[in-house]
């Protein structure tokens, strides 16, 4: 896929600039997710668990498709039961070693302490949101080192 970046026109407004930034972030997310497959596979092969955060649902689906049965997805598109099933399966099933979530949906209010490996495909905009995602894993009750 090709992305062309051009100089902005003086008449462009902030919304146009933000739209361009968003498109570039989505493109880089897709590229980075494909590049991350080898790293994630190394974690799986080492019989460890990994939590992967991204901003985009399409990226979660792409990674899930690649890792199939050993992965679960947690996004805002899932209902509460599906979300809880994803967390429970990741936390309790030794064969489920990849948790893929969007920063917004999975970045707060859940515990993923069975993993000590965190990968951001793309980081949230604010340091506070990054810290929230980080705190899903590294907190009291962590079982992984």
TrEMBL record:
Instruction: Name the InterPro entries on file.
Output: Helicase_C-like, P-loop_NTPase, SNF2/RAD54-like_C
Annotated Helicase C-terminal domain residues: 23-145
Q: Name one GO molecular function term.
A: hydrolase activity
Q: Which GO terms describe its cellular component?
A: nuclear replication fork
| Biological processes, Gene Ontology terms | DNA repair; replication fork processing
Keywords on record: ATP-binding, Helicase, Hydrolase, Nucleotide-binding
Protein name stated in the entry: Helicase C-terminal domain-containing protein
> Which PROSITE patterns does the record cross-reference, listed alphabetically?
HELICASE_CTER
Which organism is this entry from? marine sediment metagenome
